[in-house]
Specification:
This protein is of the alpha/beta class. The chain folds into 2 domains: about 260 residues, TIM Barrel (Alpha-Beta Barrel); about 90 residues, Sulfite Reductase Hemoprotein, domain 1 (2-Layer Sandwich). Helices cover about 40% and strands about 20% of the residues. The protein has 13 helices and 15 strands. The strands form 3 sheets. An 8-stranded parallel β-barrel has the order 3-4-5-6-7-8-9-10, surrounded by 6 helices. Helix 9 packs parallel to helix 10. The chain is globular. The chain starts with 8 loop residues before the first strand and ends with a helix.
């Protein structure tokens, strides 16, 4: 398989870029402070063939748990910083890579220059032999970049990634990779192609975020990977699926199969129906999920909404506050799942907060209204 000549970035025992084999990643779906469950899942993912396993850290207690997790597993670990970038200092001694989101830096300590925040992360990484990932996500793009690019949301993502590459380069830190993720595979392809054209030296982590449930989530990801990996773009990948926690290993198996197919020229055409009709996007079951009932709810939404399969309607089912608001804003109907209730939205309009066992009835009402509108417009 042809590969772009990106630089090599060592991450623990794994090398990303520089012609190394494409590394496959996944993310622990357990609560980080539950050390027993998290260690068990990290080891499950490692046994399934994961080269790297990512864990989310959102507090000092998470960071303290991470130290114990590190002592109890040999897996190559990456940590996902949320809005508190200062936690980089606490987690760097225990992991091989730190992922931060440029959009999150904007929300925390807004009076401080972004460069100062990036410098703290880079200094912590350099002091503890860590790599970095600049992880740009469509649901949380830096609002200044979004405002500057208007409707070109892909352009905003790429500009944000390029900005942070320049910041890290200026700080003398070049041991980093970049990811540009969206729930729309077309935008994933567009964003990564644009970025690779301007920074062909930087290794890329590929993924369709909130791809949803199998098999649709695998299909969306396959389409993006075939177009990118098939042209030499991409050095490490993740298949993000909404599955029960015990089935997270399916992400690894799906990624390995896609990579192997591409390497052997087994490309699959896009099904005729795939770009039309009902589209359900849902985030992968990860440790940011605020209520594990989210996974079951996503599966129920798929079943309940099946009667709308012939209508061009997008339903987003999101499990946390990190990407929930932004992703549901962009969908026709959105379910942003909190600890005790589900925020049901129509675009950016909040229709109300409903208990998990009642939201499906209200979803049907909203879905019927959209179908009636589409029927009326077709007359």
């Amino acid at each position: 398989m042809p590969r772009n000549r990106t630089r090599a970035v060592p991450v623990g025992a794994v090398t990303i870029g520089g012609g190394a084999p494409i590394a496959v990643q996944s993310m622990a779906a357990t609560r980080t402070q539950d050390v027993e469950a998290t260690v068990r899942q990290v080891n499950l993912l490692q046994a399934a063939g994961a080269d790297l396993v990512r864990i989310a850290v959102d507090s000092r207690r998470d960071a303290e748990a991470l130290a114990e997790i590190r002592r109890r597993t040999t897996a190559t670990l990456s940590v996902d910083l949320q809005e508190n970038y200062r936690l980089a200092v606490l987690v760097a001694p225990h992991v091989d890579k730190i992922r931060y989101n440029p959009g999150h830096l904007y929300h925390h300590e807004r009076e401080k220059p972004v460069r100062e925040k990036v410098a703290l992360i880079a200094e912590a990484a350099a002091a503890h032999d860590c790599a970095l990932r600049v992880g740009v996500n469509c649901g949380s793009v830096d609002p200044e970049q979004s405002a500057a690019h208007g409707e070109d949301d892909v352009g905003a993502m790429v500009a944000s990634a390029l900005e942070h590459c320049a910041l890290l380069d200026g700080l003398g830190f070049t041991r980093y990779v970049v990811s540009l993720k969206d729930s729309d595979w077309r935008k994933v392809v567009d964003a990564n192609r644009r970025f690779a054209a301007q920074r062909p030296d930087v290794p890329l982590h590929l993924g369709v975020t909130e791809a949803g449930m199998p098999p649709e989530g695998v299909i969306k990801t396959r389409i993006a990977f075939e177009q990118l990996l098939g042209q030499g773009v991409g050095d490490t990948v993740r298949v993000s699926l909404t599955v029960p926690f015990e089935r997270k290993g399916e992400e690894i198996a799906a990624a390995r199969e896609i990579i192997d197919d591409i390497a052997h020229g087994r490309f699959r055409s896009v099904p005729d129906w795939f770009d039309h009709g009902l589209n359900i996007i849902s985030c992968p079951s990860c440790s940011r999920v605020e209520n594990e009932a989210f996974v079951e709810l996503a599966q129920q939404v798929k079943q309940v909404a099946a009667y709308a399969r012939d209508y061009d309607i997008t339903i987003a089912v999101m499990g946390c506050r990190v990407n929930g608001p932004g992703e549901t804003d962009g969908a026709d109907l959105g379910l942003w799942c909190g600890p005790a209730a589900v925020n049901l939205k129509r675009g950016s309009e909040l229709l109300g907060a409903f208990p998990y066992d009642r939201v499906l009835d209200r979803l049907r009402v909203a879905l019927d209204e959209l179908i009636a509108q589409q029927r009326a417009g077709a007359r």
